[in-house]
Design a protein that fits this description.
By secondary structure, the chain is α/β, with parallel strands linked by helices. Among the domains are: about 10-70 and about 75-85 and about 205-275 and about 395-440, FAD/NAD(P)-binding domain (3-Layer(bba) Sandwich), CATH 3.50.50; about 445-680, Vaccinia Virus protein VP39 (Rossmann fold, 3-Layer(aba) Sandwich). It has a seven-stranded mixed beta sheet with strand order 8-7-16-17-18-15-19, sandwiched between helices. It has a seven-stranded mixed beta sheet with strand order 23-22-21-24-25-27-26, with helices on both faces.
């Protein structure tokens, strides 16, 4: 784990845009100890995830769904304490070919569909299987979706199903869409079955996204983030070392760093210097009709249509997923249509748009009548989806704009994923390593993290060997987690322990003060539904409120306490651990600095490296540490206990029973392990 002292810098951050991307970015920056202000032009937060009212009910403006494989979004919901409000249901999917709408909810139903020839059915299966394979994003971006689908599924499936679906979704842009777009879409949908809720399940949070946004806003304020609504930014100018941000009227804000989470055309308008850098990104708009009805339209959650004359992309019947009590017992239907920028339909009158959709439904569904519609509403978003054309990767702007202190983090930069909230949260998490990189490489800020972030090949071998030693020591003392354990790794660093432990436990949560280390951990471990990496507040790293309400049966705190500034900090940390420990939990405090043992550890590593054939790499790594001023500074300022008894006393005073491992005969270079268990209530000393 990185040094737990607060970073020496006091840079002021300004995040523009309070959509999910902006709110997540602001929250993670605040959790890392940054001073953050969040500004939003609208009177409320949420962006594309905000809500609207329709005949007395309030729900999402646009349709959203949660998959059981959305580990980044599920991790966010868990940290917000919303997991208990998450509901999953088995849903059905329909496909309209010609005038017939039939269920294709299972492979058997697809095979039995009389409207699809057998050659097309086999082609559909091949294209889905091809989407599972790990294919280079650059290769997919260089080929059109139609060409890729033709190669995978054959011309019959393309002409009957894929091309009409693409045209329904993308309109005139369908022929130029890249294979990366359809590959990402299929890959996300195919992953449903890999989740813990089983195949065909979709989810939502009770109360809709309004509840998620409200919980996130509350956490932002608790973290000290200043939020300003009705604060449209008019311009951003670099003057000296500061970014001067102009708002409504003559309002001004000054910041050291500004993160723009708004679409590229808006970002270019706010800062003229970005115009050339952000050119080349075309966006699609969306017009979405919401119908509140007295009766259901279909029995499907999603109904895809191959009818290019339909005035919408598909039918999303939200009341076939969400408990209808959320809608006052009625039925909520979304009819979205994606349009290229500047399309005349985007500016049409609301009544004309909704009338077109209702008239089409009357022609296509004999049991439907416009008298079934209780209320209709039209919602629009001008910049909702970056045009997925061939070669789009080459037009994606970098997070660093080239203007000092100015960053762009938006959905246009998402590669290999579809536009959804899980990918939004993931992108915000991934970009934070780039945002904080300058801060974390200031001398003395986070020396341990600097060492991880600046890994060279010999360092990689060194820390890998150290991690293997840790696992070997835990195994020798029979202190590895059990398969049914919920594991909390406090000070997870760049994921070396997670790489070795996450697959062997039921649930793994890694915490660290460094966003850079967490980004490295996510890259190292990859996607897993049972794994989450969350940031600690660098200003108060002993505060574990980010996992409040959760209980862990196994807690690993390895190579952490030596970085605490004093024993008072250790007592606060032990008290926080007691708050998240399950009854009979095992808390393993490893690599305990009972005395300075760098020489002994170095000799042990050299001996092991000799056996592993990596002596030259380990020698270079150790030499680099010897001449690393920040390494020695971090070592000198941490805690070192003069005796094991004193360490055990500190744990006992915090309400634990403590056991030193190994009890005797500890070899040189092997620091002790402290096994703690919460004392039963009434037995605390």
């Amino acid at each position: 784990m990185a040094s737990l002292q607060k970073p020496s810098h006091e840079a002021r951050w300004l995040v523009v845009g309070a959509g999910i991307m902006g709110m997540t970015t602001a929250w993670l920056l605040a959790q890392s100890g940054r001073s953050v202000t969040l500004v939003e032009a609208m009177p409320q937060a949420g962006g594309l995830a905000d809500s609207c009212r329709l005949e007395g009910i309030s729900w999402d403006r646009f349709y959203h769904v949660i998959l059981s494989t959305d580990e980044h979004l599920l991790g966010l919901l868990s940290s917000l304490g919303l997991s208990e409000r998450l509901r999953f249901r088995r849903t059905r999917t329909g496909l309209q070919i010609g005038s017939c709408l039939r269920s294709v909810s299972t492979p058997l139903e697809l095979l039995a569909n009389p409207d699809i020839p057998w050659s097309a059915k086999l082609g559909l299966a091949r294209s889905v299987m091809a989407s599972i394979a790990d294919t280079s994003a650059a290769e997919l971006d260089a080929e059109t979706a139609v060409n890729w689908l033709t190669r995978q599924s054959g011309s019959k499936a393309v002409e009957l199903i894929w091309r009409p679906l693409l045209r329904s979704k993308l309109g005139e842009q369908a022929e130029g869409a890249s294979a990366l777009f359809i590959h990402s879409t299929l890959r996300r949908m195919y992953g449903i079955g890999a989740g813990r809720f089983g195949s065909g399940h979709f989810g939502y949070v009770e109360g809709g996204y309004a509840h998620i946004v409200a919980a996130l806003e509350s956490r932002l304020r608790q973290a000290g983030v200043q939020i300003r609504y009705n604060w449209p930014v008019s311009s951003i100018k670099l003057e000296g070392q500061k970014q001067h941000v102009s708002g409504p009227g003559r309002a001004q804000l000054e910041a050291d760093r500004v993160v723009l989470t708004v679409p590229n055309p808006i970002a270019a308008r706010l800062c003229p210097g970005l115009g050339r850098r952000l050119a080349g990104t075309d966006y699609m708009s969306v017009v979405c009709v919401s119908l509140l009805m007295d009766r259901p339209l279909t029995s499907f959650y999603v109904s895809n249509t191959t009818d290019e004359a339909a005035p919408f992309t598909g039918i999303i019947e939200m009341s076939n997923l969400v408990d209808r009590r959320e809608f006052g017992g009625r039925h909520l239907v979304y009819l979205p249509q994606y349009l290229p920028a500047g399309h005349p339909r985007y500016c049409r009158d609301d009544n004309a748009i909704s009338d077109d959709c209702i008239a089409y439904l009357e022609r296509s569904f004999p049991g439907f009548s416009r008298t079934d519609v209780v209320a209709a509403r039209v919602n629009r978003a001008q910049y909702v989806l970056a045009d997925p054309h061939v070669g789009r990767i080459g037009t994606i702007p970098p997070v660093r704009t080239g203007i000092p202190g100015l960053f762009v983090v938006n959905s246009c930069q998402i590669v290999g994923g579809t536009l959804n909230v899980n990918e939004t949260v993931r992108h915000a998490e991934d970009c934070l390593a780039c945002l904080v990189n300058d801060d974390e490489h200031q001398p003395g800020a986070y020396p341990a993290v600097e060492r991880w972030a600046a890994m060279r090949p010999w360092d990689d071998r060194l820390v890998t060997l150290e991690a293997d030693n840790m696992i070997a020591n835990l195994a020798r003392e029979e202190l590895l987690p059990h398969p049914d354990d919920a594991c909390l790794d406090l000070g997870c660093g760049p994921g070396l322990a997670a790489q070795r432990l996450a697959a062997r436990v039921e649930r793994y949560v890694g915490l660290d003060v460094s966003l850079l280390a967490l980004a490295l951990a996510r890259q190292r471990v990859g996607r897993a539904a049972n794994v989450a990496f969350l940031p600690l507040n660098a200003a108060n790293p002993q505060d574990l409120s980010i996992v409040s309400g959760q209980r862990f049966s196994y807690i690993l705190c390895h190579s952490v306490i030596q970085y605490l500034p004093d024993e008072a900090s250790l007592r606060r940390l032990l008290s926080s651990l007691r708050g998240v420990a399950a009854p009979n939990a095992r808390i393993v405090i490893g690599d305990v600095p009972v005395r300075r043992e760098f020489v002994g550890e170095a000799l042990l590593l050299i001996a092991q490296a000799t056996r592993a054939g990596a002596l030259s790499q380990i020698f270079l790594g150790l030499t680099r540490r010897l001449f690393d001023r920040d390494f020695w500074r971090a070592t000198r300022r941490g805690i070192a206990f003069p005796s094991t008894a004193r360490l055990a006393e500190a744990a006992s005073a915090a309400g634990f029973t403590a056991e030193i491992r190994p009890a005797r005969g500890r070899p040189p270079g092997r620091r002790v392990l402290l096994l703690c268990r919460p004392k039963p209530k009434g037995c605390e000393s």
